[in-house]
Amino acid sequence: MSDSDEALYARWIAGDLRAFDALHARYERPLFGFVRAHVRDQTEAEDVLHETFMAVLRERRRDIRPFFSSKAGGLGLGLPIAIKIVRLHGGELALGDHEPHGLQVTVKLPTEGPPS
User: Can you give the residue ranges of every domain in the chain?
Assistant: First the structure.
């Protein structure tokens, strides 16, 4: 029996790169199919997928995951949804510390709209 996505994610956040490898193996083909349908060029699609997985690895410690909230009664969907919306519109969302405590969120969106 294989681990659930949630269990693999928890292991990966804890530093187990084998868990990331398992997630990569599980989702590489379906994600490639999705990217390939939108990009059309196989080499470019492979590059996009590779860069996506590398970005996920770089962001590992940010602990942005659906259904996790530090707030009582929070659903943990706000930030993952915001990130998805910003990226779908060709933008960037960056997180930083806001002193003395809190979170600073910076959103950059292109003026010409989402990529076609």
Answer: 1-63, 64-116
Average pLDDT over residues 50-62: 68
Q: Secondary structure of the chain in the HEC alphabet?
A: CCCCHHHHHHHHHCCCHHHHHHHHHHHHHHHHHHHHHHHCCHHHHHHHHHHHHHHHHHCHHHCCCCCCCCCCCCCCCHHHHHHHHHHHCCCEEEEEECCCCCEEEEEECCCCCCCC
Residues 6+ apart with CB under 8 A from 82: 93, 105, 107
Residues 5-24 have pLDDT tens digits of: 888 877 877 777 888 888 88
In single-letter form, the type of residue at position 99 comes to E
CA-CA distance, 110 to 89, in Å (whole number)? 8
The stretch 67-78 carries a mean pLDDT of 61
C-alpha dihedral sign at 13, 70, 97, 103 = positive
